[in-house]
Amino acid sequence: MKKIDKFLSKLILNFNLSKKYYDLYIEHNKKFIYARILKKVNKNIRNILINDCYLMPYELHSDTLKLIEHYDIWLENWNYLYNTNRNIKLNDEFVFQNEHMFPKKSEQNIINLFNKKTKE
After folding, report:
1. Number of alpha carbons in the 13 Å side-chain half-sphere of residue 7
2. Is the pLDDT of residue 101 over 80?
3. What 3-state class would DSSP assign to 93?
4. What is the pLDDT of residues 41-85, one digit of tens each?
5. pTM higher than 0.90, yes or no?
6. Which candidate among 32, 62, 91, 97 keeps its CA 20 to 30 Å from the CA of 38?
7. CA-to-CA distance for 9 and 34, rounded, in angstroms?
8. Half-sphere exposure of residue 19, counting CA atoms within 13 Å on the CB side?
9. Where are the domains of the chain?
10. What does pLDDT average to over the chain?
11. What is the DSSP code (8-state) at residue 81?
12. Dist CA 61 CA 98 (whole Å)
């Protein structure tokens, strides 16, 4: 398996996990347990992007940067809220404001690359 294929496979798996835990977070009234797991997955995505972004084709560098920026801001907001309320329990509601919207098109462009490469 080529490095780019492994990189994209890890990324897509984590995109899917992130969506799954975000949906569970919403479905279960924004409970902290799902926010905490979502944070771990989002941090994984950010780390994968940072560590292996050199593998990304040049035409997707802008998308990669948009995703990294989103995860940086999302993680900072998450950490700020958590650090101001360390007594939170797993079943408590955990909601924070994030005006920086998720770059869905950037994610989709990477997914499209993955789909294209899997058909080759």
Report:
1. 19
2. yes
3. strand
4. 999 999 999 999 999 999 999 999 999 999 999 999 999 999 998
5. yes
6. 62
7. 23
8. 9
9. 3-119
10. 95
11. H
12. 23
Main-chain dihedrals φ then ψ at residue 85, nearest 5 degrees: -145, 65
Q: What is the largest CA-CA distance in the chain?
A: 51
How many whole angstroms separate alpha carbon 80 and alpha carbon 77? 5
31 DSSP β-pair partners? 93
Both structure tokens of 88: 């939170």
> What three-state secondary structure class fits 50?
helix
- Three-state DSSP at 86 gives coil
Q: Which amino acid is at 37?
A: I
**C-alpha distance from residue 84 to each of 51, 79, 80, 90 (Å):** 30, 9, 6, 16
pLDDT at 119: 84
Please identify which residue in the block is written with the tokens 């975000």.
22
Residue with tokens 């949906």: 23
